Amino acid sequence: IHELKKDIHSIFSTSDYTNLLKNSLEILNEQAIIASKNEILRPDKIIIKENQTLVVDFKTGLPNNKYAKQIKNYALTLKEMGYPNVEGYLFYTSTLQLEQVI
Predict the structure, then answer these.
(1) SS (HEC) of 22-81
(2) CA pair distance 93, 51, nearest whole angstrom
(3) Is pTM beyond 0.70 here?
(4) pLDDT per residue over 35-45, tens digit each?
(5) 15-40 tens-digit pLDDT
(6) In angstroms, rounded to a whole number, what is the distance separating the alpha carbons of residues 56 and 35?
(7) 12, 54, 3: which is closest to 31 by C-alpha?
(8) Among 16, 36, 68, 77, whose Cα sits 20 to 30 Å from the Cα of 95?
(9) Beta-carbon neighbour count of residue 45 at 10 Å?
């Protein structure tokens, strides 16, 4: 359990990740988004700022094109819903790397 806590702390204390949270007005975790009557999206985190919206998904594996496609879909849906200046990010927990997708 101690190692798990240590890993979680290192993930959430990286400067790339903490910079995403700066000046946030609201942070939504695993918020369901009804994209259509047949599709519900559930990004890991939506960070709402005054004039910007960030969507973040956490991945435990190695980079994969399907992850980028997924985050682009989240971002496009939020943009269509009227959220301002939407950006999408993938955070790889095994390498502590943040990748801006859109």
Answers:
(1) CCEEEEEECCCEEEECCEEECCCEEEEECCEEEEEEEECCCCCHHHHHHHHHHHHHHHHC
(2) 28
(3) yes
(4) 889 999 999 99
(5) 999 999 999 999 999 999 998 899 99
(6) 17
(7) 54
(8) 77
(9) 19
Closest of 48, 65, 68 to residue 57, by C-alpha:
68
Tell me the pairing of strands 86-92 and 97-100.
antiparallel
What are the CA-CA distances from residue 77 to residues 28, 29, 70 (Å)?
15, 16, 11
Would you call 88 helix, strand, or coil by DSSP?
A: strand
Sole residue written with tokens 């994209």: 35
Which pair of structure tokens corresponds to residue 77? 């849906």
